[in-house]
Amino acid sequence: MTRKAEIGERLGEVEAQIAQACRAAGRGRDQVTLVAITKTYPADDVRILAELGVRDVGENRDQEAAEKARACADLALTWHFVGQLQTNKVRSVVGYADVIHSVDRARLVTAISKEAVRAGREVSCLVQVALDDDPERGGARLADVPGLADEIAGADGLRLGGVMAVAPLGEEPGRAFGRLAEVAGLVRGRYPEATMVSAGMSGDLSEAIAHGATHVRIGTALLGRRKPFVR
Hints:
This protein is an alpha/beta fold. It is built from 9 helices and 8 strands. It has helices at about 5-25, 45-50, 60-70, 90-95, 105-120, 145-155, 175-190, 205-210, 220-225, and strands spanning about 35, 55-60, 80, 100-105, 125-130, 160-165, 195-200, 215-220. The protein has an 8-stranded parallel sheet with strand order 7-6-5-4-3-2-1-8. The model has no long low-confidence stretch (mean pLDDT about 95).
């Protein structure tokens, strides 16, 4: 089986799962965007995904993402940065990312705004919400989300897209995504255009869609089990 055939088969399975989850939730398939997470996989796989109709691509490491974005600059893709972002990487990330999912502190908002203005770009930013107490996974505390949303909405060069979260380890995903849905509703109440809810990965996309996810971040189910990353 060629790599394109393999990815095409996997994409068909993921699409079927998303469609089934949308039907179960009483939602249209067009209400959910598939973001293909291509970390550790080559730019050739990104090109295959694009040939198969995927237009949204996500990465979580700047060095790898920047290289792929340059290699695929001729493709009409929307690039999503989904990993924890350090301020010293902001200039590079703003150079290619259309959406940054992991904004979890005011200092980061300031840095992204500065670089977006410098580059003459508008970058959509999502507030990453911490659904657990694990600092290693990033995210703003629930109480801090409204203030951070205000910071993004008022910053030059930025657009408040909505919210993002990762389901906590060891918790039933539906319960966690239910909490995210409540937060998303509060943010939309203040900023009606902030409609994005980035939630759900290969193992819990159905639960995320049931609780209002508009963007699901799928890697393993599309491209296979990743090799461990060695620094």
